[in-house]
């Protein structure tokens, strides 16, 4: 069944989009990730323009983040003060990212910017995840008690000015590092159409030393509003948010997440991480090949002079 996407200006098979959304939902349920950093490149592969894929995926992130945020709100595992600081940085970063996006679009290079960002970012994240997963598997195979890692506080963070007390997280630190983390996530959201949780969560744990129990909920609080702001900016400045595409992806993702959760319960954590890392590297490799290989059909548009 073919469906015309009015903003993307292409016709696609509705079941293909539903299947893609379902696949991302399965990955979300299995690995506990939003899937935006995998869904957006997959949209490239089926012919969706990168600018539309980025803006539409940011729209889908809002819906998935809200449901998760409500669950954490009921459990009282959201640090709203820390989330607000991260949000301020995220809004500034998102605005800056949209400016860069629009500037590259005016030069006709926005597709290249998006694809290069994914190649670099997925390559780095995938490689780090793969190495960490292999080390975790090796440690799991060793017999006997394993030495505990002592995660020491970063003294330079506690020496920075403009400190604020975050009671829910039990921290008294400078607001500068959270602002910078939020700003980076905002830029990624605008340019790559991702929530940025897979960057923000490790940064909150290892850089800001936040308790793990409040990290995910606080991250979702920031992502929800930054993704909504990014979607609004894309819709009002670039007109690249395709509601039909977003709806199909959302329906498929909701269904797929249920199956992914059941699959994830049957696999070990180390196996899940190495599978996710392998998938990230595979997508990165495909994007890199598309950029490097000569296209099968080469054409140019020459103006006709009267």
Automatic annotation (TrEMBL):
<feature type="transmembrane region" description="Helical">
    <location>
        <begin position="239"/>
        <end position="260"/>
    </location>
</feature>
<keyword id="KW-0812">Transmembrane</keyword>
<feature type="transmembrane region" description="Helical">
    <location>
        <begin position="116"/>
        <end position="134"/>
    </location>
</feature>
<comment type="similarity">
    <text>Belongs to the 4-toluene sulfonate uptake permease (TSUP) (TC 2.A.102) family.</text>
</comment>
<dbReference type="InterPro" id="IPR051598">
    <property type="entry name" value="TSUP/Inactive_protease-like"/>
</dbReference>
<feature type="transmembrane region" description="Helical">
    <location>
        <begin position="179"/>
        <end position="207"/>
    </location>
</feature>
<dbReference type="InterPro" id="IPR002781">
    <property type="entry name" value="TM_pro_TauE-like"/>
</dbReference>
<feature type="transmembrane region" description="Helical">
    <location>
        <begin position="214"/>
        <end position="233"/>
    </location>
</feature>
<keyword id="KW-0472">Membrane</keyword>
<feature type="transmembrane region" description="Helical">
    <location>
        <begin position="12"/>
        <end position="39"/>
    </location>
</feature>
<dbReference type="GO" id="GO:0005886">
    <property type="term" value="C:plasma membrane"/>
</dbReference>
<feature type="transmembrane region" description="Helical">
    <location>
        <begin position="85"/>
        <end position="104"/>
    </location>
</feature>
<keyword id="KW-1003">Cell membrane</keyword>
<dbReference type="Pfam" id="PF01925">
    <property type="entry name" value="TauE"/>
</dbReference>
<protein>
    <recommendedName>
        <fullName>Probable membrane transporter protein</fullName>
    </recommendedName>
</protein>
<keyword id="KW-1133">Transmembrane helix</keyword>
């Amino acid at each position: 069944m073919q469906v015309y996407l009015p903003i993307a200006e292409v016709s696609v098979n509705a079941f293909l989009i539903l299947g893609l959304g379902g696949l991302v939902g399965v990955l979300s349920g299995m690995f506990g990730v939003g899937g935006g950093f995998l869904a957006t490149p997959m949209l490239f592969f089926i012919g969706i323009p990168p600018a539309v894929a980025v803006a539409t995926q940011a729209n889908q992130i809002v819906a998935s983040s809200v449901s998760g945020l409500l669950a954490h709100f009921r459990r009282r595992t959201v640090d709203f003060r820390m989330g607000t600081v991260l949000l301020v940085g995220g809004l500034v970063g998102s605005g800056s990212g949209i400016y860069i996006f629009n500037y590259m679009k005016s030069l006709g290079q926005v597709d290249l910017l998006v694809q290069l960002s994914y190649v670099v970012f997925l390559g780095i994240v995938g490689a780090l995840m793969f190495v960490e997963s292999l080390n975790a598997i090796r440690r799991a195979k060793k017999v006997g008690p394993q030495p505990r890692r002592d995660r020491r506080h970063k003294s330079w963070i506690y020496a920075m000015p403009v400190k604020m007390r975050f009671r829910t997280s039990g921290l008294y630190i400078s607001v500068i590092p959270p602002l910078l983390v939020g700003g980076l996530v905002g830029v990624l959201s605008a340019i790559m159409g991702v929530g940025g949780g897979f960057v923000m969560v490790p940064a909150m744990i290892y850089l800001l030393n936040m308790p793990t129990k409040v990290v995910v909920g606080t991250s979702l609080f920031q992502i929800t509003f930054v993704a909504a702001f990014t979607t609004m900016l894309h819709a009002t400045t670039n007109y690249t948010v395709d509601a039909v595409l977003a709806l199909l992806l959302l329906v498929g993702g909701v269904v797929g997440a249920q199956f992914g959760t059941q699959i994830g319960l049957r696999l070990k954590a180390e196996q899940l991480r190495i599978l996710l890392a392998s998938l990230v590297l595979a997508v990165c490799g495909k994007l890199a090949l598309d950029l490097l290989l000569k296209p099968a059909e080469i054409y140019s548009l020459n103006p006709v002079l009267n």
